[in-house]
Amino acid sequence: MSDLSIKDVPAAEMEKLRARARRNHRSLQGELRTILSQALAPAGREQRSRKLSFEDALAEVRRIPLKTPAESVRMIREDRDGR
Question: What local confidence, expressed as pLDDT, does residue 45 receive?
Fold first, then answer.
């Protein structure tokens, strides 16, 4: 295994990383390894295995332009049928 060092990380970004690590019950080191693994995973694979924080999940849901309950039911059904 190799070591990696990132210098001059802004304090605000470090605090966000520490908070994310706490939310995911990981050390800062473990959180950074997870972020790297997800970033380097083949396209599509990281999307299914990634655990989202509540805030991240809410942001992703808000990006989906659902207009009616029927549309959301259709999307859920398509997802379930695709498994």
Answer: 54
Number of independent structural domains in the chain: 2
Q: Do 13 and 37 fall into the same domain?
A: yes
Query: Could you tell me the mean pLDDT of each successive run of 10 residues in the chain, 83 residues long?
Result: 87 92 91 89 62 82 74 83 81
Range of the domain at 76: 52-83
Burial 45-81, CB ≥16 within 10 A → b, else e = eeeeeeeeeeeeeeeeeeeeeeeeeeeeeeeeeeeee
Q: Say which residue the tokens 């309950």 belong to.
A: 69
